[in-house]
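Reviewers of the previous submission asked for a worked example of the structure-prediction workflow described in the proposal, so we include one complete record here. The input consisted solely of the amino acid sequence. No template or homolog information was supplied to the procedure at any stage.
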Amino acid sequence: MEFFEVIQKRRSVRVFSSQPVAEEHLQRILQAANQAPSAGNLQAYEIYLIKDAHNKEALAECALGQNFLSQAPVVLAFCTHARRSQVKYEDRGVALYTIQDTTIACTFAMLAATALGLASVWVGAFDEGAAHQIIGSPPGVVPIALLPVGYGAEEPAERPRRRLEELVHIR
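From that input alone, the workflow returned the following structure tokens.
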């Protein structure tokens, strides 16, 4: 898919088929996330790949009952790793750059999934402590976004967007 077509086609899909995601597709998605820009190229984030049904069900529960997380064949948990950024950027690295790094990587993964004909949805509403326990990340590696990935079993309509005249401020 051409880049702007990928952006146009991306939708938040919350119904997934049971069809597994090919390992080759998963690797391409993870490689795309690994190519995301980051502050000082420190890549102050970690990605946890969750396939286990029990863990996906637990994530759905800690995500306020968003059961589509357990339907998706794969859930990627994107976590900050502040210490990687703190070394060079101190407090600003901990408070901001690690979050930016993590969310940019998640965005790259989401767009890569779309380009491969897969569906996803960004999930930010979850109990951080519970998610931390479920994925087994070490102290200081904090879950920021969950990204279920799979083949969509729905095709959501395009959602309205603000007009650029409302969004862009020229000074």
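The radius of gyration is 16 Å. We consider this example representative of the routine output the project will generate in years two and three.
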